[in-house]
Design a protein that fits this description.
Blueprint: H1 5-11, E1 21-29, E2 37-39, E3 42-43, E4 51-53, H2 56-61, E5 65-67, E6 73-76, E7 89-91, E8 93-96, E9 104-112, E10 119-126, E11 135-140, E12 149-153, E13 169-170, E14 181-184, H3 192-197, E15 201-208, E16 211-218, E17 232-234, E18 243-246, H4 252-255, E19 260-267, H5 269-272, H6 275-281, H7 294-300, H8 306-309, E20 313-323, E21 327-329, E22 335-337, H9 340-349, H10 369-373, H11 385-395
Parallel strand pairs: 4-7
Antiparallel strand pairs: 1-17, 1-20, 2-8, 3-4, 5-6, 6-20, 8-19, 9-15, 9-20, 10-11, 10-19, 11-12, 12-14, 13-14, 15-16, 16-18, 21-22
Bound molecules: 2-acetamido-2-deoxy-beta-D-glucopyranose (8 copies).
The site of one 2-acetamido-2-deoxy-beta-D-glucopyranose has 7 residues, from loops.
Length: 396
């Protein structure tokens, strides 16, 4: 573990609220994208999807997680296997070994996000304990939705409010509700074929004790201050966030512990696969009405829905974490200061030479990561799938 205390001292601005500059503490990109993640290696036991999340070795062997010729990370659902009746399809769920504290900005630059009938991807974060450590759903959508939906999940006492300043559309406001507290993206091309056709875009999340805010920019609108090489970010020119959960309505420091980043793609299950929801978005063949196994029968079983499966992949240019204090929290519980220049230098040293640099990040210890990573957050769709979907439906 390399600790660079100097950088942290210089960067600390004295108050998370006053901080406008955040320094790079972790970068996942290029050939080293998959370093420092924990593969779930277990069937989807949190949202009841018809998916087995495989081990890193298996995902690598099957090319479900790899770096493509452009230096981008591909994470996908198996679209070549024949799935016998009552068995599940292979996919990937990965969690960062590191935790990102209040005072962090997380940026994902992607050119493709999974979509299609039966497909349910998510790019999200969670505290070590659920729900007490909180959950932030940054990218989450299902089936034929064309717009992204944001949510927080927390213990009772935290809510979204229409008095915040945001550009999206507000949905359920109680973050303890089974759907979570919701904002819908209203900018064009935040999800689905539109996102891909536009060349993708950037999702940025501010996790701060003053509030949690999320911005989305389609490729042509990404602020110039955000780039694959930036070692600091300044959010002051980012404009109004799409989703804004302020500390006036949710004591962020109370409800949100340091967060791990999670990427997964499930299928069907407690949201995408609910008969009424599935039927409202995807055609039903061979039956007069949708039932609980329609999604499985049409999209997972046998050869699956080849059209949907061919678009069931993330293509990620980079994920970067920035922190006002220049620190990350390792799985073993130690806070480590990181020199942003060494993160970037490490990135370009191991890079493929393309614009999407690679990185190992610098310092975090991943000891104990297995145990921590295995603590799955139970995403609370089970009972309220209808609530989330109703909201989603109004966005379409
Ligand atoms: C990956 O795991 C699946 C079970 O989910 C198994 O059927 C398959 O043989 C494994 N593939 C490899 C290449 O290890
Ligand atoms: C930064 O570090 C200081 C001193 O350790 C701490 O009081 C503060 O909460 C930290 N702020 C953030 C945003 O992490
Ligand atoms: C397969 O998925 C595609 C893309 O999501 C969709 O347009 C099509 O209707 C689906 N077909 C069936 C039979 O579900
Ligand atoms: C969120 O809304 C509050 C209340 O309107 C506002 O003070 C704050 O600046 C907003 N956050 C961002 C990042 O714009
Ligand atoms: C918060 O959620 C839990 C779990 O769903 C539920 O038991 C509890 O009643 C909720 N509290 C409130 C105030 O809604
Ligand atoms: C459920 O619907 C699927 C097609 O959507 C069909 O293949 C299957 O036979 C139906 N099952 C029942 C029990 O009706
Ligand atoms: C499987 O999906 C990939 C994208 O992940 C696509 O390029 C390929 O054509 C698909 N294969 C088949 C047989 O549809
Ligand atoms: C899911 O499986 C993991 C790993 O075995 C376990 O730690 C976790 O408690 C399980 N979650 C649920 C909701 O069963």
């Amino acid at each position: 573990m390399r600790a660079v205390a100097l950088a942290a001292a210089a960067l600390y601005s004295g108050s998370a609220l006053a901080a406008t500059s955040y320094s790079l503490v972790k970068e996942y990109s290029g050939q080293d994208f998959f370093n420092d993640w924990v593969f779930y290696n277990q069937y989807d036991n949190t949202t009841n999807g018809d998916i087995v999340y495989v081990s890193q070795q298996n995902a690598t062997a099957q090319k479900l997680a790899y770096v493509n010729d452009n230096g981008a990370a591909i994470i996908k659902v198996d679209n070549t296997s024949f799935v016998p009746w009552n068995q599940k399809r292979d996919s990937v769920r990965i969690t960062t070994a590191d935790y990102f504290e209040l005072g962090s900005v997380l940026i994902m630059d992607a050119s493709h996000i999974p979509y299609g009938c039966g497909i349910w991807p998510s790019f999200w974060t969670k505290g070590e304990q659920w729900p007490s450590g909180g959950e932030i759903d940054i990218v989450e959508a299902i089936n034929s939705m064309t717009a992204n939906q944001y949510a927080l999940h927390s213990n009772e006492g935290c809510s979204a409010s229409s008095s915040a300043t945001f550009s999206g559309s507000i949905g359920a406001t109680d973050c303890n509700a089974t759907s979570g507290c919701l904002f819908g993206e209203t900018k064009d091309n935040s999800y689905g074929p539109g996102f891909a056709a536009a060349g993708g875009g950037v999702y940025a999340t501010l996790l701060d004790d003053s509030g949690i805010s999320i911005w989305f920019w389609s490729r042509s609108d990404v602020p110039s201050s955000i780039s694959s090489t930036a070692t600091t970010v300044d959010i002051s020119d980012w404009g109004t966030p799409s989703a804004n959960y302020t500390s006036a309505d949710c004591d962020i420091a109370e409800y949100f512990a340091p967060q791990q980043i999670v990427l997964d793609i499930t299928m069907c299950g407690d949201w995408a696969g609910v008969a009424s929801i599935y039927e409202s978005m995807c055609p039903i063949t061979g039956a007069t009405q949708a039932n609980a196994s329609s999604c499985y029968m049409q999209d997972v079983y046998n050869n699956g829905n080849q059209t949907a499966l061919a678009t069931a992949y993330f293509e990620i240019n980079y994920i970067k974490a920035f922190n006002a204090n220049g620190t990350v929290l390792s799985a073993s519980g130690s806070t480590t200061s990181v020199n942003p220049t060494s993160v970037a230098a490490s990135a370009s040293a191991s890079g493929s030479g393309s614009s999407s640099a690679t990185s190992t990040g610098t310092s975090a210890s991943s000891s104990g990561a297995g145990a921590v990573g295995a603590v799955g957050a139970v995403k609370a769709w089970a009972l309220a799938a209808g609530v989330g979907a109703l909201f989603a439906w109004t966005l379409m």
